[in-house]
Amino acid sequence: MIDIECVWPAEALLGEAPYWHAEEEAVYWVDIDGRKVFRYDPCSGRRHVVEQDHEVGCLVPRKGGGFIAGIDAGLAWINSDLMVADVFASPEKDNPRTRFNDGKCDRRGRFWVASADRNETEAIAALYVVDVSGEITKVMSDVIVGNGMGWSPDNRTMYFTETGRGTIHAFDYDIETGTIGNQQVFATVPEAKGYPDGLTVDADGFVWSAHWSGWRVTRYTPDGLIDQEILLPVPCVTSLTFGGDSLDRLFITTARIGLNDQQLKEAPLSGGLFAVDVGIQGISETEFAG
Fold first, then answer.
1. How many domains does the chain divide into?
2. What's the whole-model pTM score?
3. Which of 4, 116, 136, 172 is the most exposed place for a label (fewest CB within 10 A)?
4. For 72-93, how does the pLDDT look when each residue is reduced to its tens digit (9 = 90+)?
5. Comparing C-alpha atoms, which of 232, 230, 273 is closest to residue 254?
6. Rg of the chain over all Cα atoms, to the nearest angstrom
7. Is 282 contained in some domain?
8. pLDDT tens-digit series, residues 40-52
9. Residue 1: pLDDT above 80?
10. Which residues are catalytic, by number?
11. 275 CA to centre of own chain
12. Is 233 domain-assigned?
């Protein structure tokens, strides 16, 4: 039986975007609606919270220090003190109904980041890539809620989650040019199991997906078949990342926004950070190289 531990009952409204910082041996994650950034050190148990003036959807460490982030106002630099220092681009400034949501770097250090319709109803969001030179390219439009992404171990496939349509897409990926093509449906989640949210890929090329309103995490084979499911004690499972000394521990973020009193009574740890020893090795995430 898999042991599931709530390592931080943070009561985050919308916990999201965990990132395992291998050098620091710590997990960074955010509470988007609660406007907070968290840092958790599993070895010491130390917890650090920084209140924000913005809704920070995701952040990734930057080569040379600090972070790159997707926030409500656009794309931003965050200092090492975890405060937003500068909004360097606002690709969707003319669309107040969207905000930047999830993001991650490919293994050449390009920052891929998706936006989301705040109402989660219309396809007015998009997927972007920020090159190491700073050039920003819109790669995909017609997105409702852009979410988790990742790459196969051989860098030939990119996965991208479209939560609004309950679908994980797979693309052919050119790591040299940072371009995608040949879009296909990798997996579709039935409503009874919630909606696909954050995503990560393990060293065997299997895809792990968190389920919003689904009480679970699913591991898919490279062919998109369900390999295993891990049930959690909370309904809104948002994202996940591999961490620990051997990269075989899953750190999982969750949310409590939208849950009523009865639901919170049934799932009081909603909004907490969980850890699960899965005995399967992940892949180190990449920092932004720009």
1. 1
2. 0.97
3. 172
4. 999 999 999 999 999 999 999 9
5. 273
6. 17
7. no
8. 999 999 999 999 9
9. no
10. 197
11. 15
12. yes
